[in-house]
Amino acid sequence: MKANIKWLDDPEVFRINQLPAHSDHPFYKDYREWQNHSSSFKQSLNGAWQFHFSKDPQSRPIDFYKRSFDSSSFDTIPVPSEIELNGYAQNQYTNILYPWESKIYRKPAYTLGRGIKNGDFSQGKDNTVGSYLKHFDLNPALAGHDIHIQFEGVERAMYVYLNGHFIGYAEDSFTPSEFDLTPYIQAKDNILAVEVFKHSTASWLEDQDMFRFSGIFRSVELLALPRTHLMDLDIKPTVVNDYHDGVFNAKLHFMGKTSGNVHVLVEDIDGKTLLNKKLPLKSTVEIENETFANVHLWDNHDPYLYQLIIEVHDQDGKLVELIPYQFGFRKIEITKDHVVLLNGKRLIINGVNRHEWDAKRGRSITLADMKQDIATFKHNNINAVRTCHYPNQIPWYYLCDQNGIYMMAENNLESHGTWQKLGQVEATSNVPGSIPEWREVVVDRARSNYETFKNHTAILFWSLGNESYAGSNIAAMNKFYKDHDSSRLTHYEGVFHAPEFKKEISDLESCMYLPPKEAEEYLQNPKKPLVECEYMHDMGNSDGGMGSYIKLIDKYPQYMGGFIWDFIDQALFVHDPVSGQDVLRYGGDFDDRHSDYEFSGDGLMFADRTPKPAMQEVRYYYGLHK
Amino acid sequence: MDYTNKKLHIIYGDGTFGVNGQDFQYIFSYERGGLESLKVHGKEWLYRVPTPTFWRATTDNDRGSGFNLKAAQWLGADIFTKCTDIHLKVDEHDFPELPIAPFNNKFSNHEYASSAQISFTYQTLTIPATNAKIIYNIDDVGHIKVTMHYYGKKGLSPLPVIGIRLIMPTAATGFDYEGLSGETYPDRMAGAKEGRFHIDGLPVTKYLVPQENGMHMQTKKLVINREATQNNSDQTNEKFSLSILQDKKPFNFSCLPYTAEELENATHIEELPLVRRTVLVIAGAVRGIGGIDSWGSDVESAYHINPELDHEFSFILN
Question: Where would I find the Beta galactosidase small chain/ domain in this sequence (chain B) (predicted)?
Fold first, then answer.
């Protein structure tokens, strides 16, 4: 297949040759590798890449992916990082209005009775292009195996080539994109070429209130597949018998050779074996209804995780792949009185919204950032996080499992610029809406989020997205989750503006910034449990009056609490030549227009990860209903 | 003789009223309309006369809700102060007029008293105008009780703050206080712990856009520490302190290197002027900061300052 730049203009083209999303389990050759957290099946491609920046698609080096291309004039760029923060393109912060506001007239394809506008993005004069090249040899341990490549996050549309051959195309900036490199991989002297466009029709769906960046901003890895490889793990731990016992179900989907055995073990924290099964390898191996008496339940106070170990053996009994995974038993449900229970007890959300942010690295955050954020959560009685408004880096989900942080796992979707017009609802050109051509692209985002993270105990809610209005396409996302997952609740706030969809969308009544009095009015006759998915807007010196919300928790069991907006200011460190200091800058400080200026700074934390004075108030109030 | 028991040495000056004691020297200026000099143990504590303060640097929530637009005339009333009346009382004697020349020709350098009271009335530059009175009561050992009375008036704009601003000639090296931990406001103090706290320097909370910050509610005692003076003959650079004590009720304060107007003017913290002075605001009424949202919701009504009611507060300079 040949790559086609017109895909950028077509909302129905969003993944070409991309492998189906699957669970995020690690896999190792043996126990020693697991001990060292280092898999010989993986090869990181992070580091210095060759790079060329083009201000628009017309001026990009079209043939850069060919082996014959002379790339000696290319610069180098670190991967992962943001193109803008390397100085190639202008930083821009805008909230609702799209970044091309008043520079380019655009309306989404298939809205207003129009079809696709050819060249809208593929010739967009604002559509900067990063041409990335990576020369690499395969690590010897990977040689001879089928090889996949996984991009954890690339904004916003990318074409991948290997050794001159087109490999595939992907959108959805915040979920992993995986491709099969096997047909073209060599042991040595591979040239990987990735062409990253800042804009495509996906930009309509990714209008999050944030600095607008582009580039390969999360890790890139090569994956070598053992002769038999667990492609997808689907575990379903449930709680039965009045919250006493656990039932364990799992589906293991293998690829490669199906001769040999699979050995499935479940151990508790003391190493006691609860399950020990040896089954013949098949493409799908199922563990059905294994009951564990008196399970230790998982929650915020006691995030107890069981250890699942999957050993894959060949016909000679030799270990070919080892998959460890930790999971917990917990049950979330809604009573007929519209109260949300976790393990039979009322669930109270002491939450925050959290953008991935690092004042030096933008959204290309580090594991150290994540660990620091978890420590801040624990110290301040924050027990829940909404991954606003996109899936986060994979390690964050493991940290939340291990630390008992309840997750509202949100899809990568925010299109408020297509229907919030100067504060008024005006949805004539809204996407995804109910437009057929925009359906698959958003359902795919739900699927990727679900398939990647489905095994994480910490996820209690799937959130369909943020501020995207509502129509049958978002209803289809809700249905996707309902068809695949009975162990969690769905959440979506935007249906507030299209109440005719409330029956089909969201298990929760979700509001944002609803004043305490109005929340109380709803709670006097609730139809669903109420959550404030965003509240206490912490812009500057704020967080006053929090007690009025916390009182509602005591008064109304149907009020679940909420997620403070938000965890950390989005501001960037810049060296100021006038004062000679490193200072924090916000929207508009980069001559970026249109901008929403200091609206980027609404955190409980300053952008340098020190707490604002308001944090002691949060710690107190969130400590009242721990 | 009677005067030997009286410890305050009074100077009926041509343009000022002087109160001197063992280790202090106070000058009240009729021209400047306030306490011109607060000299304790040889160290000057005032850069300019203290004035009523009515403005706080606009917070993001204030801007979003349009509070700054509603309250704007208090900004003018904060910057510009119009003293309209001064009243003096020494011991039990009420002066019907200020004792300037030729009235003061009858006094000597041997005038003593046990107490003195001087009050300054300021007319606010608002429409309608109202008055605020600052009353200094000096006892026989030189402690000054400072009282401010704000006269409410119908039709006035909502108030950002009611307080007294004292500007000191050099930056404090730090301060100690007995009250609540952290930065607190009437609607954000439930999580604060009571105790004694030491603050190094004069930290400005680093909100992205400089704004009202650093308030400390319900304080019993504050001690401000300085080392430098502007006195060319004083090179000691040793720590010296001024204490502010609660009177009937605890007081609220912020101790920053900037006025509300200096904060208001900056769009980034690095734009603020070099730190060179200490700006102490003792606030009787503090408006909440809000938090419901930053684009329209007002601070909850319980945390507004009603401009139509009288407000009074006091504290003691020690």
Answer: 18-318
